[in-house]
Amino acid sequence: MAVPEIIPIGYEPDYHTDTIGHWEGGQFLGSVVAAFPEGYTHTDDWQAHKRWHAVLHTFDAAGHHLNSRIERTGTDDDHRAAVDAAQERLKQWLNTLPGLRFGDIAIRPFRHDVDGVLFGLVIETFEGTEHAELYPDNLGFYEPWDGLYDT
Fold it and tell me: Which helix (H) or strand (E) holds 121?
Protein backbone atom coordinates (compact mmCIF):
# COMPACT_ATOMS: atom_id res chain seq x y z
CA MET A 1 0.00 0.00 0.00
CA ALA A 2 1.43 3.37 -1.01
CA VAL A 3 1.85 6.23 1.45
CA PRO A 4 -1.38 8.27 1.35
CA GLU A 5 -1.28 11.98 0.50
CA ILE A 6 -2.69 12.75 3.94
CA ILE A 7 -1.25 10.89 6.93
CA PRO A 8 -3.58 10.26 9.89
CA ILE A 9 -2.09 10.77 13.36
CA GLY A 10 -4.01 9.46 16.34
CA TYR A 11 -4.42 11.47 19.52
CA GLU A 12 -3.08 9.67 22.60
CA PRO A 13 -3.58 11.50 25.92
CA ASP A 14 -0.51 11.48 28.18
CA TYR A 15 1.74 10.07 25.46
CA HIS A 16 3.66 11.21 22.37
CA THR A 17 0.67 12.68 20.54
CA ASP A 18 -1.16 14.33 23.42
CA THR A 19 -0.83 17.87 22.00
CA ILE A 20 -2.46 17.46 18.59
CA GLY A 21 -5.89 18.47 17.41
CA HIS A 22 -7.99 21.13 15.74
CA TRP A 23 -8.53 24.85 16.08
CA GLU A 24 -10.55 27.45 14.18
CA GLY A 25 -7.78 27.78 11.56
CA GLY A 26 -7.38 24.05 10.92
CA GLN A 27 -5.18 21.51 12.70
CA PHE A 28 -2.13 21.61 14.97
CA LEU A 29 0.68 19.34 16.10
CA GLY A 30 2.66 20.35 19.18
CA SER A 31 5.49 18.69 21.06
CA VAL A 32 8.35 19.13 23.46
CA VAL A 33 11.31 17.31 21.99
CA ALA A 34 15.08 17.02 22.25
CA ALA A 35 17.33 16.73 19.23
CA PHE A 36 20.97 16.79 18.25
CA PRO A 37 21.97 19.00 15.31
CA GLU A 38 22.47 17.22 11.98
CA GLY A 39 25.91 15.66 11.69
CA TYR A 40 26.54 15.55 15.42
CA THR A 41 28.77 12.69 16.48
CA HIS A 42 28.76 11.50 20.07
CA THR A 43 31.22 13.24 22.39
CA ASP A 44 31.75 13.20 26.13
CA ASP A 45 29.93 16.54 26.43
CA TRP A 46 26.84 15.24 24.59
CA GLN A 47 24.49 16.94 27.05
CA ALA A 48 25.64 20.35 25.82
CA HIS A 49 24.63 19.34 22.28
CA LYS A 50 21.24 17.79 23.05
CA ARG A 51 18.84 20.72 22.56
CA TRP A 52 15.28 20.91 23.89
CA HIS A 53 12.57 22.58 21.82
CA ALA A 54 8.98 23.71 22.08
CA VAL A 55 7.31 22.96 18.74
CA LEU A 56 3.95 23.96 17.30
CA HIS A 57 3.10 23.21 13.66
CA THR A 58 -0.18 24.45 12.21
CA PHE A 59 -2.03 23.13 9.17
CA ASP A 60 -5.16 24.06 7.28
CA ALA A 61 -8.24 21.82 7.37
CA ALA A 62 -6.92 19.88 4.33
CA GLY A 63 -3.62 19.12 6.11
CA HIS A 64 -1.36 21.61 4.29
CA HIS A 65 1.43 23.01 6.47
CA LEU A 66 0.82 26.66 7.37
CA ASN A 67 3.46 27.57 9.93
CA SER A 68 5.95 26.24 12.47
CA ARG A 69 6.84 27.86 15.77
CA ILE A 70 10.00 26.37 17.19
CA GLU A 71 11.92 27.67 20.16
CA ARG A 72 15.05 26.14 21.63
CA THR A 73 14.71 26.30 25.41
CA GLY A 74 18.05 24.89 26.56
CA THR A 75 20.26 21.84 26.54
CA ASP A 76 20.42 18.67 28.55
CA ASP A 77 23.10 20.29 30.72
CA ASP A 78 20.12 21.72 32.61
CA HIS A 79 17.53 19.12 31.62
CA ARG A 80 14.72 20.00 34.02
CA ALA A 81 14.84 23.74 33.31
CA ALA A 82 14.99 23.19 29.54
CA VAL A 83 12.04 20.77 29.54
CA ASP A 84 9.97 22.93 31.89
CA ALA A 85 10.59 26.01 29.73
CA ALA A 86 9.60 24.11 26.56
CA GLN A 87 6.41 22.78 28.16
CA GLU A 88 5.48 26.25 29.36
CA ARG A 89 6.14 27.82 25.94
CA LEU A 90 4.05 25.16 24.16
CA LYS A 91 1.23 25.67 26.66
CA GLN A 92 1.32 29.44 25.97
CA TRP A 93 1.21 28.89 22.21
CA LEU A 94 -1.66 26.40 22.46
CA ASN A 95 -3.62 28.87 24.59
CA THR A 96 -3.52 31.36 21.69
CA LEU A 97 -5.28 28.98 19.28
CA PRO A 98 -8.98 29.91 19.16
CA GLY A 99 -11.37 26.99 19.39
CA LEU A 100 -8.64 24.53 20.40
CA ARG A 101 -9.74 20.92 20.89
CA PHE A 102 -7.48 17.91 21.16
CA GLY A 103 -8.03 14.92 18.89
CA ASP A 104 -6.90 12.97 15.83
CA ILE A 105 -5.44 14.88 12.90
CA ALA A 106 -4.56 14.12 9.27
CA ILE A 107 -1.73 16.10 7.66
CA ARG A 108 0.41 16.13 4.55
CA PRO A 109 4.17 15.57 4.60
CA PHE A 110 6.23 18.72 5.23
CA ARG A 111 9.69 19.71 6.39
CA HIS A 112 11.07 22.66 8.30
CA ASP A 113 14.77 22.96 9.20
CA VAL A 114 15.91 25.07 12.17
CA ASP A 115 19.47 25.35 13.47
CA GLY A 116 20.56 22.11 11.82
CA VAL A 117 17.55 20.13 13.09
CA LEU A 118 14.84 18.69 10.84
CA PHE A 119 11.26 19.19 12.00
CA GLY A 120 8.59 17.63 9.84
CA LEU A 121 6.72 14.62 8.54
CA VAL A 122 8.94 13.06 5.90
CA ILE A 123 8.35 10.11 3.57
CA GLU A 124 11.17 7.56 3.84
CA THR A 125 11.93 3.99 2.81
CA PHE A 126 13.10 1.43 5.36
CA GLU A 127 13.79 -2.17 4.33
CA GLY A 128 11.93 -1.59 1.08
CA THR A 129 8.79 -0.20 2.74
CA GLU A 130 7.74 3.44 2.52
CA HIS A 131 6.54 5.12 5.66
CA ALA A 132 6.14 8.60 7.15
CA GLU A 133 8.56 9.64 9.91
CA LEU A 134 7.87 12.57 12.24
CA TYR A 135 11.10 14.41 13.09
CA PRO A 136 12.73 14.97 15.46
CA ASP A 137 10.16 13.03 17.51
CA ASN A 138 11.09 9.78 15.70
CA LEU A 139 7.52 8.55 15.36
CA GLY A 140 6.99 6.25 12.38
CA PHE A 141 3.61 5.88 10.63
CA TYR A 142 2.96 2.80 8.47
CA GLU A 143 0.15 0.97 6.74
CA PRO A 144 -2.66 0.37 7.43
CA TRP A 145 -2.40 4.16 7.96
CA ASP A 146 -4.72 4.17 10.97
CA GLY A 147 -2.97 6.94 12.95
CA LEU A 148 -0.96 4.56 15.13
CA TYR A 149 2.84 4.91 15.23
CA ASP A 150 6.05 3.14 16.17
CA THR A 151 8.74 4.77 18.29
Answer: strand 117-126
